[in-house]
C-alpha cells in the first residue's frame, strides 16, 4: 500500500515543504504559522486543480434535476420490476451523459491526498518521528515542534493528554462538521429546485449526505492529527464559499436562488425602464415648455402707420 501511495507522499510533502521554506524568512523555521499556512496552501493548490471536477459536479446536478420528470415516469412504469427500473435509469443517465454520483467526485478525488497527508503528519507525531516523501530529518523535527494555537500539529485527540490539543481538536472537529452541514443545507434550500420528496432518489441522497458526512467527521475526527483537521476545515470552508458564489451568481434554473436572482433583475430592469420613461417625459415636457416660451418671447410686429 505504501509503495502505491509513495508518489502522493512525495507530492504532498514537497508542496508543504516548499511553502514552508518560502514562509520561513517571515515566520521562522519552527513556527506553527509557517507549517499551518503550508497545509492551507496545499488545500488551495488542490482545490484549484479540482475546479474542473467541481464544474462537472454542478453540470451533473443540474442535468439530474432536469431529468427528474423522466426518472419519475420510469419509477412509476417499472415500480414492480426493480431490475428493469435500474436498467432504464442507467440508460437515461448514459443518454444524457450524467452521473448521480458526480456530487461525490471532489470528495473522492481528495481522499488519496487526505490519506497521504494523514500518513505524513502521523509519522511526524510518532516517537521517534517517521519521515515520508521528501521530508528531511530537520523538517520532521521542525514540524513536530510546530504548534497551532498551542497544539502540536502532529498530535491527535486520542493520542495526547495535553488539554490544549483536546480543546483545539474539538473546536476544529465542530467547525468541520458545521461547515459540512451548512454547505449541504445551503445546496438543498437555495441551490436545488423544489421537488416532490416522495420516491425521489436525488433528494434522498442529498438528505443522507446532509446528516451522514457531519456525523462521520465528528466520529473519525478524534483520530486525525491537528494538521489534518486544519486541512479538512480549510477545504470545507473553500467548498462553502465556492458553492455560495455559484448559487448566488449562476443558480440552477427553478431553484429558490434562481427565482430570487430573477426578481432582483426584474426589479432592477423595472427601475431602469421607469427612469428612462421619466427622463423621456421630462425631456418632452421641457421641450414643449421651451417651445411655448419661445413662442411667447417672439417680438411683436409694429403696425405701420397709414
* Count of helical stretches: 11
Q: Calculate the terminal CA-CA distance, rounded to whole Å.
A: 124 Å
- The radius of gyration computed from the alpha-carbon positions, rounded to a whole number of angstroms, is 31 Å
Return the structural class.
Answer: mainly alpha
Would you list the SSEs in sequence order as H and E? HHHHHHHEEHHHH
Low-pLDDT windows of residues? 288-294
Oligomer: single chain
Number of strands: 2
Keywords:
306 residues; mainly alpha; two-stranded antiparallel ribbon; 11 helices; 75% helix; 1% strand
What does this structure look like?
It is a single chain. The protein has helices at residues 2-27, 32-49, 51-66, 68-77, 82-95, 105-125, 137-145, 163-191, 201-220, 226-249, 256-296; strands at 147-148, 151-152. It is built from eleven helices and two strands, in the order H-H-H-H-H-H-H-E-E-H-H-H-H. Strand 1 and strand 2 form a beta hairpin. The protein has one domain (2-67, 91-253). Strands 1-2 form a two-stranded antiparallel ribbon. The model is unreliable at 288-294 (pLDDT under 50). The longest helix is centred in the last third of the chain and has 41 residues, at 256-296.
Amino acid at each position: 500500500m505504501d509503495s502505491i501511495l509513495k508518489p502522493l507522499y512525495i507530492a504532498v510533502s514537497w508542496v508543504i515543504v516548499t511553502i514552508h521554506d518560502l514562509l520561513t524568512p517571515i515566520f521562522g523555521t519552527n513556527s506553527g504559522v509557517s507549517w499551518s499556512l503550508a497545509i492551507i496552501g496545499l488545500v488551495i493548490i488542490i482545490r484549484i486543480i479540482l475546479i474542473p471536477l467541481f464544474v462537472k459536479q454542478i453540470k451533473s446536478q443540474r442535468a439530474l434535476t432536469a431529468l427528474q420528470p423522466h426518472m419519475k415516469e420510469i419509477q412509476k412504469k417499472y415500480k414492480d420490476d426493480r431490475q428493469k427500473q435500474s436498467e432504464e435509469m442507467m440508460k437515461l443517465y448514459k443518454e444524457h451523459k450524467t452521473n448521480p454520483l458526480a456530487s461525490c467526485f471532489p470528495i473522492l478525488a481528495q481522499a488519496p491526498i487526505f490519506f497521504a497527508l494523514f500518513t505524513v503528519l502521523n509519522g511526524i507525531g510518532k516517537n521517534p518521528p517517521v519521515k515520508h516523501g521528501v521530508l528531511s530529518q530537520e523538517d520532521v523535527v521542525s514540524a513536530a515542534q510546530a504548534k497551532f494555537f498551542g497544539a502540536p500539529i502532529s498530535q491527535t485527540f486520542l493520542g495526547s493528554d495535553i488539554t490544549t490539543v483536546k480543546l483545539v481538536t474539538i473546536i476544529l472537529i465542530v467547525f468541520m462538521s458545521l461547515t459540512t452541514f451548512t454547505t449541504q443545507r445551503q445546496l438543498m434550500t437555495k441551490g436545488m429546485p423544489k421537488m416532490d420528496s416522495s420516491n425521489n432518489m436525488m433528494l434522498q441522497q442529498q438528505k443522507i449526505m446532509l446528516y451522514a458526512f457531519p456525523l462521520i467527521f465528528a466520529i473519525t475526527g478524534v483520530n486525525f492529527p491537528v494538521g489534518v483537521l486544519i486541512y479538512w476545515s480549510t477545504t470545507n470552508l473553500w467548498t462553502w464559499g465556492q458553492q455560495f458564489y455559484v448559487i448566488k451568481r449562476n443558480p440552477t434554473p427553478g431553484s429558490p436562488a434562481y427565482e430570487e436572482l430573477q426578481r432582483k433583475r426584474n426589479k432592477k430592469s423595472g427601475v431602469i425602464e421607469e427612469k428612462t420613461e421619466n427622463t423621456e417625459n421630462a425631456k418632452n415636457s421641457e421641450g414643449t415648455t421651451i417651445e411655448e416660451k419661445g413662442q411667447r418671447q417672439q417680438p411683436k410686429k409694429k403696425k405701420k402707420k397709414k
